[in-house]
Amino acid sequence: MPVIQLQGVHRVYDHSAVPVHALSDVTLDIDAGEFTAIVGPSGSGKTTLLNIIGGLDQPTEGTITLADTDLATLSRGERVEFRLQHIGFVFQAYNLIPVLTAEENVEFILLLQGRPRGERRRVVTDLLEAVGLADKAASTVNQLSGGQQQRVAVARALASGPAFVLADEPTANLDSGSASMLLDIMERLNVERHTTFVFSTHDPRVVDRARRVVRLVDGAVAEDVVRPSPS
Amino acid sequence: MMLQIAWRNVLRNRKRSAIIMAAIMFGLWGGLVASGVSFGFSYDTVSSAIETRLSHIQIHAPTYRDNRSIRDTLRGARKAEAHALRVPGVAAVTARLVVEGMAASAETSTGISILGVDAAAETTVTTLHEELVEGSFDFGGRRNRIVVGRDLATRLGVRLGSKIVLTTQDMQGTIVGASYRISGLFRTDSKTFDETTVLVDRGGLARLVGAGESLHELAVLVEDPRSLDSVATGIRAGLPGASVETWKEIAPELNWINAYTEVYLEIFLGIIVLALLFGITNTMLMSVLDRIREFGVLSAIGMRGRRVFVMILLESLLLSLAGAVLGMAAGWGTVAYLQSVGIDLSAFADGMRQWGYSEVSHPVLPGWMYVEVLLAMMVAALLGAMYPAWKAIRLDPARAIQTY
Predict the structure, then answer these.
(1) Do B294 and A98 touch (CB under 8 A)?
(2) For every one of its 404 residues, what pLDDT tens digit does chain B have, with 9 covering 90 and above?
(3) What is the dihedral of CA A22, A28, A29, A35, to 10 degrees?
(4) How far from B257 is each of A132, B60, B356, B370, CA to CA, in Å?
């Protein structure tokens, strides 16, 4: 059953004299539990697509239905609340809150959700163990390596119990060892917890692991390949 | 946690935070010390007038203060004195016979007010005896002794031990006069008072003007100046035929000094706080512009605009209060120190005494002033952060996240 449904989505930027068609008639369904990579060259519309799926940007035309909710029916504030409850984000530049420790970054999402303290502690401990950073819980962001920060970002993305996680170039700033460890963790979470991951990437390490690859060219879906499960 | 994040954000750019905190601290420190000095002048002037001349409350015949006629005596003065002493909150009462007259020396003469007092009772109400610079205050038990202001002595060209002649009207309107020997010289903060007031024994003056047991004025000292109005009301209740007035009614110009000083200083501190408000806005705006990507991320992960707004206001509040508390502590310390040592302005004594100002000012700042400044700074902190906070929540998260 699709958690993400895009129907005839267009996104045109008309800030300049010549309108830019970032997305053209994108129709896409992504089911729960998928491990999908959206690939394509720079400027192909990967980030725009992820922003639109994440409710950070709005399509010029078309409909987006996420977890049975039509995004067009939500106000700006409701979209923020929807993201809090249903979407996890992992960014290329990690984007943790620099004044918080690793565990506080994860707990912050739960705090925004108004979860009680006991539950917050339980979820944070569980997630930091899942990403192999239980011993770094009290470390501040600048005490962590890039790979460790990105693993904290994954734990943060999962803290709210989202319907899916959007990861924009998650390995772009990581060395191969860190990238491999991160992908191992995300694959394991996908298998064990059935977390839906959608990546935008042009990193072959990510593409190799993806079980579905959606290729964008000039803002349109040029190829959509589902690979057999490794098992 | 929101408060914790806000405080950590304040500490994030320590130099920037330290600069605006220092601006707030020095701004408030300067404002509070200047206010303390002004309040000190005002309070010293009013206190000096009350303590040396006016007392807290005066009781007269209803028409006395309009006419200042020797015949406008206070009916039932002794009973009125006894009643006043019974009113709760009254510390002491002294009775005066007050007549207008002329003082003449061999060189010149001048118009004066002659206060006939009981020296012992007078010292329980006023502190004029503490202002003596030569001689004694008690007339030496002699009827023809007089205590005068040193400025009057100078004007008349006389000194301690010299004789002067007082002339005035008696109760029948006849001009009478007597010769007095100066037994004491006082010097208060008011040159005008010192040039126009003499004190003589009340019994002797009563005999000179034929006043018998009549009195013109009862001067009352209250135990706690804050209960002034309630004590005055208590006295009035028992003296329906008399005029009972507080110092604020007798000398409204002094009351005006206090009121004016308060208003002036509120405007003065308000301008300082307003200037600091723009500094706070600038700092918070820089802080927001430095963190555009972070606000984009916060919006992306689900932090609603109003929470971001509140977080920025909290940051501004913490930043400003830290500076304000330091500034107020420094201001309090400085005012307390200057209060203990006083500010000696005797170099300008002549000009200041002309207006009744004390030569040595003791800065003072009432507690409510600190509370007002703190509240004003809190309001400034919130107002100053409004625009930066509004800017932060209006960011487009998709574009903000791409900002480096």
Answers:
(1) yes
(2) 788 889 999 998 899 999 999 999 999 999 999 999 998 988 888 888 898 888 999 999 999 888 888 899 998 888 999 999 999 999 999 999 999 999 999 889 999 999 999 999 999 999 999 999 999 888 877 778 999 999 999 999 999 999 999 999 999 989 999 999 999 999 998 888 999 999 999 999 999 999 888 999 999 999 999 999 999 999 999 988 899 999 999 999 888 888 888 899 999 999 999 999 999 999 999 999 999 999 999 999 999 999 999 999 999 999 999 999 999 999 999 999 999 998 888 777 777 777 767 778 889 999 999 999 999 999 999 999 999 999 999 999 989 998 77
(3) -60
(4) 73, 25, 11, 20
Tell me if B286 sits within 8 A of B23, measured CB to CB. no
Closest CA to B326 of B279, B266, B373: B373
* B138 contacts B192 by C-beta, under 8 angstroms: no
Domain annotation for chain A: domains and CATH numbers: 33-56+72-226 (3.40.50.300)
Partner A contacted by B14 (CB < 8 A): no
Q: Does residue A84 sit at the B interface (CB-CB below 8 Å)?
A: yes
User: CB-based contacts of B371: which residues, under 8 Å, 6+ apart?
Assistant: none
From the CB of residue A18, how many other CB atoms can be counted at a distance below 10 Å?
6
- C-alpha B120/C-alpha B126 separation (Å) is 11
Of residues B17, B66, B34, the one with CA closest to residue B286 = B17
Distance of alpha carbon B54 from alpha carbon B76, whole angstroms: 22
Map tokens 């208060």 to a residue.
B188
State whether residue B310 sits within 8 Å of chain A by CB: no
* C-alpha span between B19 and B108 (Å, rounded): 65
Beta strands at B163-169 and B343-344: parallel, antiparallel or unpaired: unpaired
Work out the widest C-alpha separation in chain A, in whole angstroms.
55
Coil vs helix vs strand at B50:
helix
Are the C-beta atoms of B52 and B115 separated by less than 8 Å? no
Q: ipTM value of the model?
A: 0.91
**A77 touching B (Cβ < 8 Å):** yes
Query: Order of strands, edge to edge, in the sheet holding A35-39?
Result: A87-90, A164-168, A197-200, A35-39, A212-217, A220-226
Partner-chain contact A100 B398, CB within 8 Å: no
Contact A227, A212 (CB under 8 A): yes
Query: Which residue type does B355 have?
Result: W
Write the single-letter amino acid at B324: A
Across B25-130, the runs of DSSP E, i.e. the strands, are: 57-60, 90-104, 109-117
d(CA B227, CA A75): 61
Determine how many CB atoms are found less than 10 A away from the CB of residue B93: 23
Closest-CA distance of chain A to residue B22, Å: 23
DSSP state of A101: B
CB contact under 8 A, A77 and B303: no
Please report the residues numbered 182 through 221 in chain A whose beta carbons come closer than 8 angstroms to any beta carbon of chain B: none
Residue A43 contacts residue A49 (beta carbons within 8 Å): no
Separation between Cα atoms, residue B150 and residue B41, nearest integer Å: 23
Sole residue written with tokens 């000696």: B344
Q: How many CA atoms lie within 13 A of B225 on its CB side?
A: 9
**Amino acid at site B120:** A
